[in-house]
Structure formats: C-alpha cells, structure tokens
Amino acid sequence: MTARTVLVTGGNRGIGHAIAAEFVAQGHRVAVTARSGEGPAGTLTVRADVTDTAAIDAAFTEIEEKLGPVEVVVANAGITRDKLLMMMTEDDFDVVVDTNLGGSFRVVKRATKAMMKARFGRIILISSVVGLFGGPGQVNYSSSKAGLVGMARSITRELGSRGITANVVAPGFIETDMTAELSDDTQAAYKKSIPAGRFATPTEVARVVAWLAGDDAAYISGAVIPVDGGLGMGH
C-alpha cells in the first residue's frame, strides 16, 4: 500500500481510535481530530469540533503543514441523543444531524480541495447498521447515518473522474465501552439477532476502512460495506 496522509475525525476513542491505529500500523502519516483526549501512539492529534467550520479549516492547515495534504479522510466523529420520537426535541434532532451528517460534510468539503488538485482521494464515511436497518429511539441518529449514503454517492458522481472515491462503512454492534456497559442479558439478546452470534472488534472495522483507502480499492466508489455480522443484510 502506498503511504498516505490520513485524517480520522473523532480518533481519540472507540472505532476512530482503532482506525487511526490501523493506519499507523500500515505505515501511513496519520492525524486525528478530537475535542479532548489523544489519538493512538504515532498520530498527530489536532483540536477541532466538526460543527465548527473555522476549527476544521484550522485543523487541516495544521495537518498540511506537518504531514502534507490530506489524501485519505475518514469521517468518523459522531454523537447520539437517543429518545423515543414523542420525547425527542428539535434540539436533540438538530445537534445529532449537524454533528454526524453536517460534520462529515464540512470535513469532506475541506479535504476535497487538495484531493482535486492531486487527482487522488479516498473519502470514507462511517455510518451504522442503524442508518439502513432503523432503530427505536434513534430517529435522529439513523437519519444522520442514512444521509451519509446519499452523500457518498453524490460525491462519487461529482468527483469520480478526478481519481476520488467515496464509500460508506456501516458497522453493527462493536465491542466498545458503550456495549461493555450493557447487562449480560441485554448483550445476549442482541447477539441472538446477529447471524455471526457475536459483536465485532474495533480492529475488524478498522481493517475494512484501511482496505477501502488502499490501492486495491481504487475502482470501488459509492458502496456501502456492512461490518455487522449479517445483522442488516438485505438493506
């Protein structure tokens, strides 16, 4: 794989941290954005909130000065505010969509400046099985994650001829701090609904992302790749 300059948003924990670590292990120059905390060893951590366009621009400027133009961007930063529809406020909806979908837009738009000039780029949007499968109490979250599919496919049609690909990775249940807090009974119930019978490791998601960024995936764009053990198949 050709060594690239990679940016992973929200790379200070969970799946984002694992993705950044995988790119480092494969020999890439890796930066992560984080509002707090640090990325894995070997990464450059820059402070940025994906809802702030000026902060995103400043983060890219710092990365470009220290590592070079961003060639691979992984839009991973996201939040949840789960509530049943009747209890969900407009703010609950707006802040999740603005972070998860709007944040991806801001980051990708800034990244494409250098990508178009270089006639090369890899854009990978981290969605969720919930974006295609739905989930009770997650109208805001699932809407934001479903929107990433349309984003990737529109980018593909706009920029595909410039050597830029845009794809979506849709993880299912992953072994993170969030799932570890679930009771044993709840975890067992979830696992019964997954054909694979288990949760994925963050590394399993990270390796799919790294493959999409690599030379072997140059002819794949506008795709949605599930990493969910078969949970959302058919969607």
Automatic annotation (TrEMBL):
Superkingdom per UniProt: Bacteria
Keywords: Oxidoreductase
Keyword Transferase listed: no
Residue ranges the record marks as coiled coil: none
Listed GO MF terms: oxidoreductase activity
SMART domains, per database record: PKS_KR (SM00822)
UniProt keyword Lipid biosynthesis present: no
Domain Ketoreductase positions: 4-177
A matching Pfam family: adh_short_C2
Entry similarity comment: Belongs to the short-chain dehydrogenases/reductases (SDR) family.
Classification via PANTHER family: 3-OXOACYL-(ACYL-CARRIER-PROTEIN) REDUCTASE, 3-OXOACYL-[ACYL-CARRIER-PROTEIN] REDUCTASE FABG
Name of the protein described by the UniProt record: Beta-ketoacyl-ACP reductase
Native species: Pseudolysinimonas yzui
